[in-house]
Amino acid sequence: MRLPHLPALKVCCISSVEEAQLAIAHGASALGLVSAMPSGPGVIEEALIAEIATRVPPTIETFLLTSRQEADAIVEQQRRCRTSTLQLVDHVPHAELRRLRTALPGIRLVQVIHVADAGSVEEAVAVAPLVDAVLLDSGNPTLAVKELGGTGRVHDWALSARIRAAIGVPLFLAGGLRPDNVAQAIATVRPFGLDICSGVRSDGRLDGDKLSRFVAAWAQTNVP
Fold first, then answer.
1. Could you report the per-residue pLDDT of 10-22, keeping only the tens digit for each?
2. Does residue 90 contact residue 79 with C-beta atoms inside 8 Å?
3. pLDDT higher than threshold 60 for residue 1
4. Cβ–Cβ < 8 Å for 53, 72
5. Model confidence over 49-99: pLDDT tens digits?
6. Can you tell me the distance from the alpha carbon of 131 to that of 94, in angstroms, rounded to the nearest whole number?
7. Which of 61, 79, 115, 132 has the fewest other C-beta atoms within 10 Å?
8. pLDDT digit string (tens) for 184-204?
9. Is 1 contained in some domain?
10. pLDDT digits over 111-138, tens only?
11. Residue 112: helix, strand or coil by DSSP?
12. Element (H, E) at 169
């Protein structure tokens, strides 16, 4: 359960029903389920995404991470996977976002912004009115093989704080979050939610000990 003074906790790269249960037992209110990506960890088949999404409690948000950029393809994928939220990890044109909103009125839209420079602030401000939340990550979509998440890298939290102050929708923070930096991340950015993946995994699996250490540091954070 989310403590009222702390950001929500989203555990990403969930790869089984058992991992979903472990994350929920540690206080996660949202789960990230990764579909086909050009690179990065945690990719699972759509049939497994649908199974996990239908077997967790309805109070737990399920995020389908999709790298697709066209509304029709995203709509078809969401209907196969049946998650409550779409996490758009690559740039989706604004016209396609509007089409998504019309086609999937009950599904939350979360646009990922990969924080690189001041242009990321402008990108977030422009897209915020079209989505339900923004998620800041540390990928690099400009590479020949795109990095769209799961890098384990920390980006410039000063830029993240600027984005949070400039947009009128909830903000999730991802990218290299660990027990030893989560308090600083919360104090600097003051996000609505935290998104964790690589920092709580070992050999590709969700690590209960690492997750426990992260949750302990998260729960002990002093937020005035």
1. 999 999 999 999 9
2. no
3. no
4. no
5. 999 999 999 999 999 999 999 999 999 999 999 999 999 999 999 999 999
6. 10
7. 79
8. 999 999 999 999 998 899 988
9. no
10. 999 998 999 999 999 999 999 999 999 8
11. strand
12. none
CA torsion 144-148-151-156 (nearest 10°) is 100
Asked whether residue 91 is domain-assigned, the answer is yes
**212 lies in some domain:** yes
Amino acid sitting at position 126: A
Going by C-alpha positions, the residue among 211, 206, 154, 215 that lies closest to residue 16 is 206
CATH number of the domain residue 156 falls in: 3.20.20.70
The predicted model scores a pTM of 0.94
Distance CA 82, CA 63 (A): 10
Whether 3 is covered by a domain: the verdict is: no
Task: Please check the confidence at residue 223 and state whether its pLDDT lies above 50.
Answer: yes
Where are the strands (E) in 46-198, listed by range?
A: 61-66, 85-88, 108-114, 133-137, 171-174, 193-196
Q: Provide the number of structural domains found in the chain.
A: 1
* Pick from 62, 218, 54, 67: nearest CA to 137: 67
Domain of residue 75, residue span: 8-219
